[in-house]
């Protein structure tokens, strides 16, 4: 009996994990504070001008409670701060501190290096993959139970 081929979501998840593992190891080697995958996801989802906890949770696909925990641990590490939202008196936004912005910039540089290594390994298809994944996918399809 042969194993079934992995589906597209599995392949995409494995590819993301490959990038995450390389980035987290690189950041540790560079002397940055270690972060969890959830904390790294906050960094990846945060707008430079700040983002609400609710919006971060939506972007990350997790609960507000999970996001809140990751954000507050990053605040405790001195990487983020939370302040009043200038657009809403009832809301607060999360922003990078100077240390957080520096670490984020370092991560962006490392991600470019990791992507270059991937291109060395798989060839110019890496650029094509980037182009394909950058295209708009539209809304998720509404499937009917026709099986």
Describe this structure in words.
With about 150 residues, the protein is mainly α. It has six helices and two strands; from the N terminus they run ααααββαα. The protein has helices at about 10-30, 35-45, 55-60, 65-75, 100-120, 125-135, and strands spanning about 80-85, 90-95. Strands 1-2 form a two-stranded antiparallel sheet. Helix 1 packs across helix 5 and helix 3 (about 55-60) packs across helix 4 (about 65-75). The protein starts with 7 loop residues before the first helix and ends in a 13-residue tail after the last helix.
Kindly list the characteristics that best describe this protein.
mainly alpha, 6 helices, single chain, 147 residues, two-stranded antiparallel sheet
């Amino acid at each position: 009996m042969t194993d079934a081929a992995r589906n597209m979501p599995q392949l995409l998840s494995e590819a993301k994990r490959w990038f995450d593992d390389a980035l987290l190891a690189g950041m540790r080697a560079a002397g940055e504070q270690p972060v969890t995958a959830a904390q790294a996801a906050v960094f990846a989802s945060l707008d430079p001008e700040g983002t609400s906890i609710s919006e971060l949770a939506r972007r990350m696909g997790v609960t507000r409670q999970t996001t809140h925990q990751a954000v507050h641990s990053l605040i405790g590490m001195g990487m983020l701060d939370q302040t009043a939202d200038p657009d809403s008196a009832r809301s607060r936004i999360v922003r990078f501190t100077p240390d957080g912005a520096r670490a984020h910039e370092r991560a962006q540089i490392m991600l470019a290096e990791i992507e270059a290594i991937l291109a060395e390994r798989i060839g110019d298809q890496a650029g094509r993959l980037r182009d394909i994944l950058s295209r708009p996918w539209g809304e998720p399809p509404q499937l009917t139970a026709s099986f």
